UniProtKB/TrEMBL annotation:
Species of provenance: Thermoleptolyngbya sichuanensis A183
Pfam families hit by this protein: ABC_tran
InterPro entries listed in its UniProt record: AAA+_ATPase, ABC_transporter-like_ATP-bd, ABC_transporter-like_CS, FeS-cluster_ATPase_SufC, P-loop_NTPase
Taxonomic lineage: Bacteria, Bacillati, Cyanobacteriota, Cyanophyceae, Oculatellales
PROSITE patterns named among the record's database cross-references: ABC_TRANSPORTER_1, ABC_TRANSPORTER_2
Protein name: Fe-S cluster assembly ATPase SufC
Keyword Transmembrane part of the UniProt annotation: no
ABC transporter domain boundaries: 9-253
Family to which this protein belongs: Belongs to the ABC transporter superfamily. Ycf16 family.
Entry-linked CDD domains: ABC_FeS_Assembly
Length: 259
């Protein structure tokens, strides 16, 4: 059982490339249970690459450093093993899966995790009861369960569906990659409320975003600024407010001077 303040993710000098181009150039980060971290930065800074490397995306090659997740070498784990062990990635652009009902998709994912934990799989009736309880977290109508995964969903509905998956899977580390992208203010509030309901002393959240507005609703314990494949500054939620007011140029200039 994870206790409050236990280290969930420890990243040291992580380096990674895609198609021969180095994107991550020495990322250092430690996330403990009960914490919410935010990574901010301009386009091309390495934020989304970092999330995909942690999740195990095959297009990204790790060339150096270490990532320890709950005491295990994460880099030796296959992507599906990472997921079953409690790492969840909410995509910036969730994919549509025509012909696969949302309910079937959710049940298969949920039972795969239960099997990994040595627990008995839920039958269709028991799972249906469970998933309907979780719908309240993101204020989704039950009719979405019979539709194909994300097919025909609005941007806000796709993001709510991601949080519904998260509510069912109860990850130890949830990574939200620009979940606020394309959301109007009402959808943003619903998604943020769902995330806040799911945060507790035994899990951790990593929120990746360009903008302060999401952090008005999901309040981080730590804010990190990423640039050129590294985290160049860490602060509290006040850092995000300063970035909103002043932009990123002053942080980049300061990091250049210190380097």
């Amino acid at each position: 059982m994870i206790g409050s303040n236990d280290v969930i993710l420890s990243v040291k000098d992580l380096r990674a490339e895609v198609d021969g181009t180095e994107i991550l150039k020495g990322v250092d980060l430690e996330i403990r249970a009960g914490e919410i971290h935010a990574i901010m930065g301009l386009n091309g800074s390495g934020k989304s690459t970092f999330s995909k490397v942690v999740a195990g995306h095959p297009d990204y090659e790790v060339t150096g450093g270490e990532v320890i997740y709950l005491g295990q070498n994460l880099l030796e784990m296959e992507p599906e093993a990472r997921s079953r062990s409690g790492i969840f990635l909410a995509f910036q652009y969730p994919l549509e899966i025509p012909g696969v009902s949302n309910l079937d998709f959710l049940r298969v994912a949920y039972n795969a995790k239960r099997k990994h934990q040595g627990l008995e799989e839920l039958d269709a009736f028991d799972f249906d009861e469970l998933v309907r309880e979780k719908l309240d977290v993101v204020k989704m109508d039950a009719s979405f369960l019979s539709r194909s995964v994300n097919e025909g969903f609005s941007g806000g509905e796709k993001k709510r569906n991601e949080i519904l998956q998260m509510a069912l899977l109860e990850p130890k580390l949830a990574i939200l990659d620009e979940t606020d992208s394309g959301l109007d203010i009402d959808a943003l509030k619903v998604v943020a409320d769902g995330v806040n309901q799911l945060a507790n002393a035994e899990n951790a959240m990593l929120v990746i975003t360009h903008y302060q507005r999401l952090l008005n609703y999901i309040v981080p314990d730590y804010v990190h600024v990423m640039a050129n494949g590294r985290i160049i500054r860490t602060g509290t939620k006040e850092l995000a407010l300063e970035l909103e007011e002043r932009g990123y140029e002053w942080v980049l200039e300061d990091a250049t001077v210190k380097a």
